[in-house]
Amino acid sequence: MAKAREGDPRSVGRLISLVEDESPLLPDLMRALAPYAGHARIVGLTGSPGVGKSTSTNALIGELRRRDQRVAVLAVDPSSPFSGGALLGDRIRMGDHVLDPGVFIRSMAARGHLGGLAWTTPQALRVLDAAGFDVVLVETVGVGQSEVEVAGHADSTIVLLAPGMGDGIQAAKAGILEIGDLYVVNKSDRDGADKVRRDLRSMLGLAERRDGAWRPPVLKTTASTATGVADVVDALEEHAAWLRESGELERRRVRRARDEVETLALTALRRRWGSVGSGDRLDELAAAVVAGETDPYTAADALVAGS
Ligand SMILES: Nc1nc2c(ncn2[C@@H]2O[C@H](COP(=O)(O)OP(=O)(O)OP(=O)(O)O)[C@@H](O)[C@H]2O)c(=O)[nH]1
Ligand SMILES: [Mg+2]
Q1: Residue 251, in any domain of the structure
Q2: Looking at 200, 217, 246, which one is the last position of a domain?
Q3: Domains in the chain, number
Q4: In this structure, are residues 46 and 141 in contact, taking their beta carbons and an 8 Å threshold?
Q5: Same domain as 280, residue 171
Q6: Which of 30, 118, 177, 258 is 20 to 30 A from 186 via CA?
Q7: How far is the CA of 197 from the centre of ligand 1 (A)?
Q8: Is 52 in the pocket of ligand 1 (CB under 6 A)?
Q9: Is residue 207 part of a domain?
Q10: What family name appears in the similarity comment (predicted)?
Q11: How far away, in angstroms, is 52 Cα from ligand 2 center?
């Protein structure tokens, strides 16, 4: 615990493993970590496969380290039940920082039984926050609902795009235009980056925004040479200041904690009535409803009351 608080990578890694394994020690661990919550800025990074998320993460770490920030990276893979596969390539792309004690990199897979990454990600973030990192980058491949999910865990969300990857369609994908606090067109060394940026700006421009609302900037980078990455970190700083001043930081964090408490409470309830584990009380009550012995309202009350 004490060593993890200092950011000792092996101790931090062990605590994350407890989260990943859904250890019975978790409630005690979370209780012990609670007083140290709220320091880290959580930054989500998402985008389609191959847009350059890992390369950008590597470059962002470099820039944040130049600004004396301690950085943790949590790479969550929503598509894989194993945490081994994607890691090898990422070790190479984020390899600049493996020996830096101010940097911690960990990948997590969706092998959890209870609620997968939706359940484990917030708890892993609690560990990294309590371990004293200034910035925690959460990298997720944008497939299905995972973009929206990562935005739900973060204070600031960066959506990464790249030219030649379906362009307009990338941005028009469900949810993308709502979740980004910053948009970054990566691979700007390639043709078409300016067009992606223009299209994106005009699509974002159509959105109604209140006075004082944050207007997501659209930046350009070449992650492989770290070009433009300092501007991304500047924009993150601006967004962090806006979050604090507008009260939005508090709102986002309360909303997140609410989801966490709700998820844990529902998990506990489900476990009690048997859909996690054995001896299914819900099945019994459902059969009673079908047989006309009880009604769904009475059955639901009985389920929640544990009777
Ligand atoms: N030309 C160019 N290539 C880049 C740039 N950034 C990344 N790449 C290359 O694009 C490929 C994919 O980069 P990654 O960083 O692995 O992309 P990713 O989004 O993490 O990919 P997944 O994790 O598979 O979704 C690699 O071959 C990178 O070297 C860039 O700015 N310009
Ligand atoms: Mg990657």
Answers
A1: no
A2: 246
A3: 2
A4: yes
A5: no
A6: 118
A7: 18
A8: yes
A9: yes
A10: Belongs to the SIMIBI class G3E GTPase family. ArgK/MeaB subfamily.
A11: 7
Of 51, 54, 55, 57, the residue with max ligand 1 atoms within 8 A of its CB, to mutate for a pocket test, comes to 55
Q: Answer for the pair 4, 127: CB distance below 8 angstroms, yes or no.
A: yes
CA of 92 to the centre of ligand 1 (A): 12
Same domain, 288 and 155: no
Residues 142 and 235 in one domain: yes
224 lines ligand 1 (CB under 6 A): yes
CB contact at 8 A, 28 and 21: no
What strand order describes the sheet that includes 218-220?
Answer: 103-109, 71-77, 135-141, 41-47, 156-161, 182-185, 218-220
Q: 199-231, pLDDT tens digit by residue?
A: 888 888 877 778 889 999 999 999 999 999 999
In terms of domains, do 238 and 280 share one?
no
Residues 168 and 268 grouped into a single domain = no
Residue 253 in domain = no
Domain match, 136 and 188 both: yes
Over residues 256-294, the pLDDT tens digits come to 999 889 988 888 888 777 655 445 888 899 999 999 999
Range list of β-strands (E), 54-147? 71-77, 103-109, 135-141
Give yes or no for residue 76 CB within 6 A of ligand 1.
no
Ligand 1, atom 10, residue with closest C-alpha: 52
Nearest one of 210, 18, 33 to 131, comparing CA atoms: 33
123 within ligand 1 shell (Cβ under 6 A): no
Q: Is 298 among the domain residues?
A: yes
Domain that residue 80 falls in: 2-246
Same domain membership, residue 200 and residue 78: yes
Per the CB < 8 A criterion, the answer to whether 223 and 186 are in contact is yes
Query: Which residue among 54, 76, 96, 161 is best mutated to probe the pocket of ligand 1, counting the most ligand atoms within 8 A of its Cβ?
Result: 54
List, for residues 128-166, the tens digit of each pLDDT value: 999 999 999 999 877 666 667 777 889 999 999 999 876
